[in-house]
Write a structure and sequence with these properties.
The complex is a heterodimer.
Chain A: E1 4-7, E2 10-13, E3 19-25, E4 32-38, E5 44-51, E6 57-58, E7 67-73, E8 76-81, E9 90-96, E10 105-106, E11 110-114
Chain B: E1 4-5, E2 10-14, E3 19-25, E4 32-38, E5 45-51, E6 56-59, E7 62-67, E8 72-77, E9 86-94, E10 102-105, E11 109-114
Parallel strand pairs in B: 2-11
Antiparallel strand pairs in B: 1-3, 3-8, 4-5, 4-9, 6-7, 7-8, 9-10, 9-11
Chain lengths: ~120, ~120
């Protein structure tokens, strides 16, 4: 069965609005969750590491004020794309792992289209 | 700087034959490697992994080989089946200088298995 649930699976929004994406770990408690982004025909790029009870760690080049991450519980992390613009249109995927150096389990992703 | 590279963007193989997908990396600090399969509009699915202390790991039709001196790993699928047609990503885990292990993904290889 699914290890990770991600919602919504797709969303279309107008430029300037904000969009929240939820990621739930179904199988185990996850102190750490990872948010990736994939542009068409490109690799999965790590955006940030979401840490339960503390601030997220953002990768270089990812604006923390634009991509707000909240990891309020051991099973839920949210990514909010604030003031979205067309260039934010992408496929956003969250993932969890049981412990260091174990496989990442991914959600089914969220296709964001900003018009 | 792409630390994990998959130089073949696509590969076509006849059903029943062997598929060999290749991956090169540049960072000798990577200590755990993984292969994922991805269908369009879905999150990646974990296939197989290997620790840097091993040179081979096998799981059913899937075998991963690691050549540390060459900084190269490969995924063998035998026999290939039409359902294996997907994009395959290799990934490598980087021990943290601080915080959490990071997983870096390659650019992907699109495999097409011909019936």
């Amino acid at each position: 069965g699914a290890v990770v649930s991600q919602h919504p699976s797709w969303v279309i929004c107008k430029s300037g609005t904000s969009v929240k994406i939820e990621c739930r770990s179904l199988d185990f408690q996850a102190t750490t969750m990872f948010w990736y982004r994939q542009f068409p025909k490109q690799s999965l790029m790590l955006m940030a590491t979401s840490n339960e009870g503390s601030k997220a760690t953002y990768e270089q080049g990812v604006e923390k004020d634009k991509f707000l991450i909240n990891h309020a519980s051991l099973t839920l992390s949210t990514l909010t794309v604030t003031s979205a613009h067309p260039e934010d249109s992408s496929f956003y995927i969250c993932s969890v792992r049981r412990y260091n150096n174990s496989p990442l389990h991914f959600g089914n992703g969220t296709r964001l289209t900003v018009t | 700087d792409q630390q994990v590279k998959q130089n073949s963007p696509s590969l076509s193989v006849q059903e029943g034959r062997i598929s060999i997908l290749n991956c090169d990396y540049t960072n000798s600090m990577f200590d755990y490697f993984l292969w994922y399969k991805k269908y369009p509009a879905e999150g990646p699915t974990f296939l197989i992994s290997i620790s840097s202390i091993k040179d081979k790991n096998e799981d059913g039709r899937f075998t991963v080989f690691l050549n540390k001196s060459a900084k190269h790993l490969s995924l063998h699928i035998v026999p290939s089946q039409p359902g294996d047609s997907a994009v395959y990503f290799c990934a490598a885990s980087l021990p943290p200088t601080s915080g959490t292990y990071k997983y870096i993904f390659g650019t992907g290889t699109r495999l097409k298995v011909l019936a």
